[in-house]
Design brief:
The complex is a heterodimer of chains A (about 200) and B (about 180). Chain A has about 200 residues and is α+β, with helices and mostly antiparallel strands. Chain A has a single domain, classed as OB fold (Dihydrolipoamide Acetyltransferase, E2P) (Beta Barrel), CATH 2.40.50. Chain A is built from 3 helices and 10 strands, in the order αβαβββββββββα. Classes of the chains: A alpha+beta (about 200), B alpha/beta (about 180).
């Protein structure tokens, strides 16, 4: 091998190495534009495995969002901060855990339109549900209310083109389901529910 | 030069270049998008009540490793506001699934105008230690300054898988200081 060939090869290899780290960096960008996410939560429960997610929630449904209504408004203890909630109605397309096909599920979440018509957009949980869209949802029953809530940002997948799209696609809990065909993913989750 | 020696050197070069790039990628990944306040001097409104007022104060200003003395950020105590303000609250927000919430309420491009941190007493008042509450308070305030969750280190409040590290760590410090 000539010295020239060696040095050309070295430069190519170095560029490949930098490309690999740049590609990893692009998956976690430090952007110079406003991020799509403008709210973040410290969730009560975060899971380390998909099995744990499936086991710990009260309900799992493949469900279509059909309507959203303004709900309660919670105030800070000093009365200065108001946080509106909305209640989203879902029709169960496939009941996977503790629900049957055709059931209704009412999920409460922070944000949405308040009773005066003002939008209060929060997207720490994946953002507003799109009416008519179908979601794979992992929910828990409220301890102090009549509704369910999305367990955390690992517990929501939107159906897009027949595949599941996670809120947190790189998370180790959601990665096994993200990008999979709905029918196949639902069958997998059902199997795991049955095994519990 | 023989091929075996060249391949060895190329393997070394590949490892080194990937290795050099990865820490930068990981370091940058703990930024929360491009959010930041206009500069290091931020108006700080502590709207906490009871011990939550103390908790916010400790995490923001008075602990030795609170955001304000530990990093380059300087917090000016003031009233609630919507321009260049970080506002902190607590309340009974109900059975929501979250212990705390950070919200960029308004911004101009990447510049935060009105950030809000909330602590959910509906959960935190039962079964959570003061250290847990401080961890959540520290994390929500840290978000407002431009940091994202960090699950790779266990000594920072920006780790959202634990509740036992109520302070920013050296990585948070250098990241904040690079932003401001």
């Amino acid at each position: 091998m000539t010295r020239k060939t060696f040095w050309i090869g070295t430069i190519i290899v170095a560029l490949c190495g930098l490309s690999v780290s740049a590609a990893i960096g692009l998956r976690h960008p430090a952007t110079s534009q406003p991020t799509e996410q403008f709210s973040a939560a410290a969730w009560k429960e975060k899971y380390r495995t998909t099995d744990e997610l499936i086991k710990r929630v009260d309900g799992i449904v493949l469900a279509q969002a059909v309507a959203a209504q303004p709900g309660r408004v919670a105030y800070s203890a000093n009365g200065e901060d108001a946080l509106p909630f909305e209640v989203v109605e879902f029709r169960v397309v496939d009941g996977i855990k503790n629900f049957k096909t055709g059931d209704q599920v009412f999920v409460e979440r922070a944000g949405g339109t308040d009773s005066e018509g003002n939008r209060h957009v929060l997207n720490f949980d994946g953002g507003d549900f799109e009416m008519g869209n179908t979601y794979l949802l992992f929910v828990k029953r409220q301890e102090d209310g009549p509704y369910y809530y999305q367990v955390n940002d690992q517990g929501r997948f939107q159906v897009e083109g027949g595949s599941l799209k996670a809120v947190m696609p790189d998370d180790e809990v959601t990665a096994p389901l993200h990008g999979r065909q709905v029918r196949e993913a639902v069958a997998t989750v059902k199997q795991k529910v049955k095994e519990k | 030069m023989n091929l075996r020696r060249a391949l060895f050197i190329w393997a070394m070069v590949l490892s080194i270049t990937i290795g050099l790039g990865l820490p930068v990628s990981t370091w940058a990944s703990h930024r929360w998008g491009c959010w930041k306040y206009a500069d290091y001097s931020i108006n700080w409104y502590n709207g906490g009540t009871g011990d939550y007022y103390n908790i916010y104060n400790e995490e923001a200003k008075t602990d030795s490793n609170a955001w304000s003395p530990y990093t380059d950020i300087f917090l000016n105590p003031t009233g609630a506001g919507t321009t260049d303000h970080a506002n902190a609250y607590n309340g009974f927000y109900g059975s929501t699934g979250w212990l705390g919430l950070a919200e960029i309420r308004s911004a101009s491009g990447c510049t935060v105008l009105n950030g809000r941190a909330r602590l959910n007493q509906s959960y935190l008042d039962s079964g959570y230690t003061r250290t847990n509450k401080k961890h959540v308070a520290c994390q929500e305030v840290g978000h407002l300054f431009g940091l994202h969750h960090n699950t790779t280190e266990t000594n920072t409040c920006m780790n959202d898988r634990i509740l036992t590290a109520p302070q920013p760590n050296a990585h948070d410090q250098s990241l904040i200081n690079s932003i401001y």
